[in-house]
């Protein structure tokens, strides 16, 4: 059978990785797919860049500075979009779909924001938009959720899905350094970008979480409902206290099904140090899935980088190649559930989210302080799991008070916090972090 | 569309789990598969058992004591075989295939021994034999290897794929107990069977490893070539020494591609305590896959039990349901590679396997002993990674000498061991364990 023809938009890190993997492993890939997979054309953002690409891919593969030429090329069966960002990616993807081409993309931002539009267009044209590479790089987590766990009612997902922040948190804990210092080091080593905002503020993780939440629970992608909180204000002190209490702090993306809706949130989270995921260090990713039949499963690997991401892109190419001839109704649905089975379960606001809390209060070292604070918690019906009060050194007038609570609704906790903050014996803004047992 | 009709052979632990999961999650499963999945008939091994099953499944589903009736029932689309063992499972599966039915099975022994025959028959009839449940219970590792990592040249797989033995090893290490004591406890708790031979001697793990090796490397299933070694002769002393050196001992199934062939071996293995897989405790399973593009990935979850295994059975049912109408040439091949891409790379004998070693020698406490032993190793071109010599107590005439080596070929190590064993200062049989860095 004639090799399937692929058009590659973008030959940056992941694009070049994809090109290399397809070249190097072409025999193995053909042996699995039953058909060759060939790059027929490469598109760059302009003519100059196209010339640079031409030098990389050799003369046999035409490179163009006009991606329109690629998405309109009738010889191309599958368009691989690896330029990232919203535009022109969105327009090119929609145009490829309109031309009846399958699409493979690593673009989490595009799908988290415009997934509904894109998947609807693809459904109408009977083509597939595959996006394994959009979440957790080379870990086949989309496949696991969408195909591997189809027997299950999924209860929750918690993932370390941003390597930059996990690297930073690992270094902060391992070396006792503060955020700003480690960020600079991460930038020097290439683990963080020059403008690291999307990573360190949790936006990248929230894009990925939004996609996982949709396929786990059968709801539309709705990034605008996600709670997004990064690690830039996390203090080394709290990492140290957490450790003393038996916890590690990780930036987790958490989505959980509750009776009244779905939680969708990214924030620094205390988790027991004994959990496997607490021991995922450096730039690695891991996703824990809790589901009713299978129980807990965990998926671990490299969440970024040229070839790990290319591994996911090529897996999608093989899937699409295999199924290009299958009746569209018999393919795996984009969002795991058939369109008529997508539910409108609401995403809960943070006030309604249930979780446990870590609180750090700087309090005056005088009698009655702990009593007043615990009274506020008791009156709010929030129960305490553990208290750690640092012994104050001689002559010190203030001390740190750490409280771990049991699960409560966040709105209630915020009301109690406002009352505590108003106490004259509470001397600084209270640090509030969320805590999950993940069991 | 009419629900797909499933015949279930066996309603033991996994069969009942499958029945329950299909009932409980039928709405979610239909929402994903786009079509209902219905148990149309259940078969037991005899009429009496069929009567007991009838009470469980209710009157709507006929139960028969004659499985022939089920595999010959023209109303049934998919046969699920959950009775285990070789016969009558083999005959029933082949008959179902001959009747043009798809088969889903959790039977690792059957496929490891008779997979070539069964897959060939299925290919000829254009039906699918799905076996996610045969390896590592609910962890979707077959899907990950066969579809998630298609871009890669897989280099090696190392897995904790038997929960019984991992439970026993965890307890031996955690409580410092010996094998026999912990085995009794495991039997009392239901983690080990009354006749635990298949588990503790590594046979069950070798069945699963054989299947993973075939789909990773594109070779036929060949259980007869596997090296199978269990944990029944493992001593608490060696677990303790390993820990002092920074290692844990796990029963691993390891398959690795070498230039001259494929390693296929199950044995107790020292691995660095810092590896994620070293921290997989109790009856849990985990599989590490090393591949050229994606790097290291790990998959973790429950490897046995009613609903975790049912999770895999039902995932296969959904896959088969979805693709029942697709051209057989476009389905995922049974052994990951297309039949004409299956290679005849040989499985290496243990003498040719490369690994590092842990040796424990009981030696006379006198001058020159260490020198004689290290000379034998040096003459055999085996280099030493670490030595630990226990200080002998006053009056003791013997001491333990622990040696960690670098990688070598096992045949060479065995020759060296024979020379050491012949020394008059070596007072007991030498303990030899294999060691892998898994990096």
UniProtKB/TrEMBL annotation, chains A, B:
Family annotation (Gene3D superfamilies): 3.30.70.260, Dihydrodipicolinate Reductase, domain 2 (3.30.360.10), NAD(P)-binding Rossmann-like Domain (3.40.50.720)
Enzyme class: oxidoreductase
GO MF: homoserine dehydrogenase activity
Stored SUPFAM superfamilies: ACT-like, Glyceraldehyde-3-phosphate dehydrogenase-like, C-terminal domain, NAD(P)-binding Rossmann-fold domains
EC number from the UniProt entry: 1.1.1.3
Domain annotation ACT: ranges: 358-434
Pfam family, one: Homoserine_dh
Record keywords, A-Z: Amino-acid biosynthesis, Methionine biosynthesis, NADP, Oxidoreductase, Threonine biosynthesis
Keyword hit for Ligase: no
Pathway note: Amino-acid biosynthesis; L-threonine biosynthesis; L-threonine from L-aspartate: step 3/5; Amino-acid biosynthesis; L-methionine biosynthesis via de novo pathway; L-homoserine from L-aspartate: step 3/3
Entry keyword annotation includes Glycosyltransferase: no
Matches recorded under PANTHER family: HOMOSERINE DEHYDROGENASE
Similarity-based family: Belongs to the homoserine dehydrogenase family.
Protein name per its UniProtKB record: Homoserine dehydrogenase
């Amino acid at each position: 059978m004639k090799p399937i023809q692929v058009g590659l938009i973008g030959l940056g890190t992941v694009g070049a990785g994809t090109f290399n993997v397809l070249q190097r492993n072409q025999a193995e890939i053909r042996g699995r797919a039953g058909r060759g997979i060939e790059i027929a054309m490469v598109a760059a953002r302009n003519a100059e860049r196209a010339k640079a690409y031409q030098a990389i891919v050799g003369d046999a593969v035409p490179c163009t500075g006009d991606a329109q030429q690629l998405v309109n090329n009738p010889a191309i069966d599958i368009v691989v979009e690896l330029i990232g960002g919203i535009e022109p990616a969105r327009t090119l993807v929609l145009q490829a779909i309109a031309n009846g081409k399958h699409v493979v993309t690593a673009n989490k931002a595009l799908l988290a924001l415009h997934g509904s539009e894109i998947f609807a267009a693809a459904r109408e044209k009977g083509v597939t938009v595959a996006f394994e590479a959009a979440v957790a790089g080379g870990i086949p987590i989309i496949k696991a959720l969408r195909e591997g766990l189809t027997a299950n009612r999924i209860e929750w997902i918690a993932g370390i899905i941003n390597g930059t922040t996990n690297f930073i948190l690992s270094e902060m804990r391992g070396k006792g350094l503060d955020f700003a210092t480690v960020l600079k080091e991460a930038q020097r080593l290439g683990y963080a970008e020059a403008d690291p905002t999307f990573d360190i503020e949790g936006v990248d993780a929230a894009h990925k979480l939004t996609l996982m939440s949709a396929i786990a629970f059968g709801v539309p992608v709705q990034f605008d409902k996600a709670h997004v909180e990064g690690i830039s204000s996390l203090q080394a002190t709290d990492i140290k206290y957490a450790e003393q209490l038996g916890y590690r702090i990780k930036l987790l993306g958490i989505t959980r099904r509750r009776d009244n809706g779905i939680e969708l949130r990214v924030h620094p989270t205390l988790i027991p140090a004994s959990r496997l995921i607490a021991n995922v260090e450096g730039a690695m990713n891991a996703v824990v899935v809790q589901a009713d039949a299978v129980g807990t499963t965990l998926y671990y690997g490299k969440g970024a980088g040229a070839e790990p991401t290319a591994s996911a892109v090529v897996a999608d190419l093989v899937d699409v190649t295999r199924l290009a001839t299958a009746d569209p109704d018999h393919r795996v649905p984009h969002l795991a559930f058939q369109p008529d089975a997508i539910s409108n379960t609401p995403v809960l606001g943070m006030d309604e989210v249930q979780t446990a809390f870590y609180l750090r209060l700087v309090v005056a070292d005088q009698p009655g302080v702990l009593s007043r604070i615990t009274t506020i918690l008791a009156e709010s019906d929030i129960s305490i799991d553990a208290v750690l009060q640092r012994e104050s050194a001689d002559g010190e007038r203030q001390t740190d008070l750490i409280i771990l609570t049991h699960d409560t609704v966040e709105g209630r906790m915020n009301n109690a916090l406002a009352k505590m903050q108003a106490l004259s014996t509470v001397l600084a803004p209270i640090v509030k972090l969320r805590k999950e047992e993940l069991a």
